[in-house]
What does this fold into?
Amino acid sequence: MSDTFENETSTEIKYGSLKTLTVLTFIGSTLAYLGSCWSFFKAESSVTEMEKNMANPDMPDFAKKMMTPEALENLKLLAANKWPVFILGLIGTTLCVVGAIQMRKLKAQGYYLWLIGETLPLITTLIFINAAALFSGFNIIGPIIYVLFVILYTLQRKYLINK
It folds into this structure.
């Protein structure tokens, strides 16, 4: 009888790498909140600053290569659509946080909330700015991290045992 009791109390909940992934999600979400606020409040001034810098002949060559007409157009589109980009960015980031909290409780629905929250900013960029904005320069890091985290979380879904 005591042997059965010991087996019942010593069952350990398995998380795999879920705890690590969710901590990274909390860190990334904090940065996403800050980035959304920053781009919202600095949208117009970023366009003005880039136009001024593009006209400056003393700019270093590496900086001139990053300040292309396409990059300026993307900034103008962001400034023109700053409200929907900001709101959908906050909603997506909040869904990521709620999903990560749910996954820490081993709830399967958390994965789907997180996935929707992770995908929403990418779709927002495609709709309101353009696809080139996602895959140019340093912006390519975002889709790479997206694919990496989708793969890592999908591999950890087996630990999500609660409904």
User: Anything to note?
Assistant: The mean pLDDT is 90. The chain has one domain: 17-159. The longest helix spans residues 18-41. The radius of gyration is 21 Å.
